[in-house]
From TrEMBL:
Gene3D superfamilies: P-loop containing nucleotide triphosphate hydrolases
SMART domains listed in its UniProt record: AAA
Name this protein carries in UniProt: ABC transporter ATP-binding protein
SUPFAM superfamilies registered for this protein in UniProt: P-loop containing nucleoside triphosphate hydrolases
Organism: Pelagibius litoralis
Coiled-coil region list: none
A GO CC term assigned to this protein in UniProt: plasma membrane
All copies of domain ABC transporter, residue ranges: 8-249
Length: 249
């Protein structure tokens, strides 16, 4: 059987800030339907990688292809429209609007309906918004304003908003930061379900190694901007270079 084209092909990606080589010649693939973890100590270059993948930071060199199409040089809005979603920027939701209205907003913008009558449009997209909220376990709270939600619930709504754009790839930079332990495990379980049920490709970072080893199908390790290891949880756990990186710094 011919190998399926990866969702994202990252080749020789580099970025320097002044004298700091934040990301140094990094190459890897994100396969379709894969939950891939990007780990490494603080300052390893993980967020810089995410920021280059979604167009927020311009790479110095390298290539990022989405199903064959080059993304480097495109704007974040263009990359989002092409199906690379990024979750967990807290500004993504409007606190005075309800959960369902927030999800309806992304459905409207995806169909370029932003200038139509808001109430009518929210009503028209309600079923689809509820289906997305159901996916993330938030349908019961559809009519509450986002401003009153707990932090963990707000992150679920943001995930529903990202899914409203029908992404092929989802980038999650520390999605569980600031969450209680139980919420962290639930959110990563949810991400794993989206990968298996919807065939989404997810790249995420996470500090809690138990969560990484428990959920990621494959793991990539960065250290000082460079990719130093790639493999399954079992392979990464016993990799001497990885152990040295985590214990020696
Ligand atoms: P991580 O997300 O793995 O903790 P980052 O990608 O945030 O790492 O940072 C990688 C390196 O690049 C660090 O040394 C950090 O100080 C530096 N860096 C990140 N963003 C900037 C920036 N906007 N300006 C200057 N240096 C930066
Ligand atoms: Mg970071």
């Amino acid at each position: 059987r011919a190998a399926e084209q990866p969702s994202l092909s990252i080749r020789n990606l580099s970025k320097a800030f002044g004298g700091v080589q934040a990301v140094n010649d990094v190459s890897f693939d994100l396969a379709k339907g894969e939950l891939l973890a990007l780990i490494g100590p603080n300052g390893a270059g993980k967020s810089t990688c995410f920021n280059m993948l979604n167009g927020q930071i311009r790479a110095d060199s390298g290539s990022v292809r989405l199903a064959g199409e080059e993304l480097i040089g495109r704007s974040p809005a263009d990359i989002w429209r092409r199906g690379v979603g990024r979750t967990f920027q807290i500004t993504a939701t409007f606190p005075s609007m309800t959960v369902a209205e927030n999800v309806a907003m992304v459905l409207m913008s995806q169909r370029r309906e932003l200038f139509s009558l808001f109430r009518t449009a929210v009503h028209r997209h309600r079923d689809k918004a509820l289906a997305l909220l159901d996916l993330v376990g938030m349908a019961a709270q559809a009519d509450r304003p986002c401003g009153v939600l707990s932090y963990g619930d707000l992150k679920r709504v943001e995930l529903a908003v990202a899914l409203g754009n029908e992404p092929r790839v989802l980038l999650m930079d520390e999605p569980t930061a600031g969450m209680a332990p139980r919420e962290r495990i639930e959110l990563m379980g949810l991400a794993a379900r989206l990968v298996s049920d919807l065939g989404l490709s997810v790249l995420f970072t996470e500090h809690d190694m138990d969560i990484v080893f428990g959920h990621a199908g494959r793991i990539i390790v960065l250290s000082r901007g460079a990719l130093i290891a790639e493999g399954t949880a079992q392979e990464i756990r016993s990799n001497p270079l990885v152990l040295k990186t985590y214990l020696g710094e």
